[in-house]
Design goal:
Blueprint: E1 2-7, H1 23-26, H2 30-41, E2 45-50, H3 57-66, E3 71-75, H4 81-94, E4 99-103, H5 105-109, H6 111-115, E5 122-125, H7 129-137, E6 146-148, H8 171-174, E7 184-187, E8 190-191, H9 203-208, E9 213-214, H10 217-231, E10 235-238, H11 247-261, E11 266-270, H12 272-277, H13 279-287, E12 290-298, H14 302-307, H15 314-327, E13 330-337, H16 344-356, E14 361-366, H17 374-379, H18 405-415
Parallel strand pairs: 1-2, 1-3, 3-4, 4-5, 5-6, 7-10, 10-11, 11-12, 12-13, 13-14
Antiparallel strand pairs: 8-9
Helix pairs in contact: 2-7, 3-4, 10-11, 13-15, 16-18
C-alpha cells in the first residue's frame, strides 16, 4: 500500500520550526521512522510528513494529499494529540477515502480518547512495526478498530532510514543543545524501563510491555558503522533513559565501540544510583569517548524524591555527580520542580544541589502528571491545564492546583537567570 506517516510535534515549538537550532525542533522521530522503514522493507511505499516543516495544518494536509496516499498514520504523545486529531479531521474532509490510523504513546494509554474521534479509522496501541505491516498486507480487512501492536524482535528490524526525512536539514546539523559538535546523530538501543518512578510508571509498561528489550551490541554496531560511513558524525547521543542498565551489555559495548567509532564523543542517560554502584563502568566508558551524562537527579530534597518514588537519595545524587566530575564528564541535570507542598527552603535544596555539583546544563521541568502515570491517579483532578495541548512539562506554566509556582519561579529566576530569560 501507499501511505504517509505524520510527525505531529508542533504544539510546544510551533509551526515551521524545523532546522532551527536546538534538539527539540529537530529531534528524530525514531519510533515513526522505524515503522516506516519496516513497512517499506515489506514492499509498501511509505513517506513522512513532518508538521514541523509546514506553516499550518492546511499546508501539511495539502502536502500529504499530493502524495496520493491510500492510508495516513499519525503517532502522537499526549501534548500533540489535539493537533494530530485536527490534522486527521482536515484530511478526512478533503479525502474521505483515505484510511486513517492513530498510534503512539497517548492512544496506547487512553485509546478511548481516539475512539471518540470519527476521523480515526483504526487505533494501533503499543509498537507498530510488525502489526501495521500485517494490516497493510491485508488492506485493513478483518481488523477491529482498536488493534494491539505485537512487540517486534528489535534485532530483526533494520536500522531506521533517516533519509525518509530531511535529516541533514534537521538533527544532523541543528540537533545539538549541550554540545556544539556537528554532524550530530542520535541512536536508540532499547525499549522499556524496569523502574517505577511515579511521574512515569507504568507508561513504559503500557507501551512496550513489562520486560526491557535491548538490541544486541552487534546490531547497534551495524547501525553505527552505517552512520559513520554515511554521515561522519562528530558526536553521538544515545537517547535511551537507561543506557547503562545491563552491565554485561555495556562491557561488550565498551570493547566494540572503539573498533567502529574510533573515539567519537558520545552522550548517555543514567540514574544516579547506577553511577554510584558502578563507577568503574563509567570510567571505562569515559575511556572510549563518554563526554556527557544526562542524570535524572530530579531534586535535592529527599521528601521530593520519595514523593516521586524515584528510589534514590540526595546523597546518591551528590556522589554520582562527584564521580562524573572526577572522570571529566559533563553533566546534564534533569530536575523536577513544582512538587505539591514545595516550600522555598525545599526549592533551595535543589538549587544547592545543582550549584554544588557544578551541573553543566540545568534542565528544569515542572511536575506534570500525564495520563497513564501513577501520579495522574491522585493529581489528575488538580491539573491546571484545561486540555492536552497545554500539558507540557517545561518549567514555564502552572501545572497543578495548590503549588506555589510564583514563589518557586522567583527563586529559580534569581538563581538561574539564563534558564529563565
Amino acid at each position: 500500500m501507499k501511505g504517509v506517516l505524520v510527525v505531529p510535534n508542533v504544539t510546544m515549538h510551533g509551526w515551521n520550526c524545523y532546522a532551527r537550532e536546538g534538539r527539540r525542533h529537530n529531534s528524530l522521530p525514531h519510533g515513526l521512522l522505524s515503522v516506516a522503514t519496516e513497512a517499506n522493507r515489506n514492499g509498501h511505499h511509505v513517506t513522512i510528513v513532518d508538521l514541523r516543516r509546514h506553516k499550518c495544518i492546511e499546508d501539511a494536509v495539502n502536502d500529504t494529499l499530493l502524495r496520493d496516499p491510500e492510508f495516513v498514520g499519525v503517532g502522537a504523545m499526549t501534548v500533540d494529540f489535539p493537533v494530530a486529531c485536527d490534522y486527521l479531521k482536515r484530511l478526512k474532509e478533503k479525502a474521505r477515502h483515505v484510511t486513517t490510523v492513530m498510534g503512539g504513546v497517548h492512544v496506547s494509554i487512553k485509546p478511548e480518547d481516539a475512539e471518540k474521534k470519527a476521523q480515526i479509522d483504526y487505533i494501533l496501541t503499543g509498537e507498530g512495526e510488525w502489526t501495521l505491516c500485517d494490516m497493510l498486507r491485508d488492506y485493513f480487512v478483518g481488523y477491529e478498530r482498536v488493534v494491539a501492536g505485537e512487540p517486534p524482535d528489535l534485532d530483526a528490524l533494520l536500522p531506521i532510514d533517516r533519509e525518509l526525512i530531511d535529516y541533514r536539514g534537521g538533527e544532523l546539523y541543528h540537533g545539538g543543545q549541550w554540545h556544539s559538535a556537528y554532524p550530530f546523530v542520535t541512536v536508540m538501543v532499547g525499549r522499556g524501563c524496569p523502574h517505577k518512578c511515579a511521574f512515569c510508571y507504568p507508561v513504559s509498561d503500557t507501551v512496550f510491555g513489562p520486560k526491557v528489550r535491548i538490541r544486541s551490541v552487534a546490531h547497534v554496531m551495524m547501525e553505527l558503522k552505517h552512520l559513520t560511513r554515511q554521515y561522519h558524525p562528530a558526536y553521538i547521543e544515545f537517547i535511551d533513559d537507561l543506557f547503562t542498565l545491563r552491565r554485561k551489555w555495556v562491557e561488550e559495548f565498551i570493547r566494540e565501540y572503539p573498533k567502529v567509532c574510533g573515539g567519537i564523543p558520545f552522550n548517555v542517560a543514567c540514574r544516579a544510583d547506577i553511577i554510584v554502584k558502578r563507577p568503574a563502568m563509567f570510567e571505562a566508558l569515559r575511556g572510549i569517548g563518554l563526554d556527557t551524562v544526562n542524570v535524572g537527579l530530579e531534586s535535592g530534597c529527599q521528601r521530593h524524591l520519595d514523593y516521586l518514588e524515584k528510589g534514590t537519595t540526595v546523597e546518591q545524587n551528590y556522589e554520582a555527580c562527584r564521580t562524573l566530575k572526577r572522570l571529566g564528564c559533563r553533566i546534564v541535570g534533569n530536575i523536577i520542580h513544582g512538587i505539591p507542598g514545595e516550600t522555598p527552603s525545599e526549592t533551595m535544596q535543589t538549587v544547592r544541589l545543582v550549584k554544588d555539583c557544578d551541573v553543566d546544563y540545568y534542565s528544569p521541568a515542572f511536575l506534570t502528571p500525564y495520563p497513564g502515570c501513577k501520579l495522574h491517579e491522585t493529581l489528575g483532578k488538580d491539573l491546571v491545564p484545561s486540555d492536552y495541548a497545554q500539558m507540557n512539562r517545561h518549567a514555564k506554566d502552572a501545572k497543578i492546583e495548590g503549588v506555589e509556582y510564583d514563589a518557586i519561579m522567583t527563586i529559580l529566576k534569581a538563581e538561574f537567570p539564563k534558564a529563565f530569560k
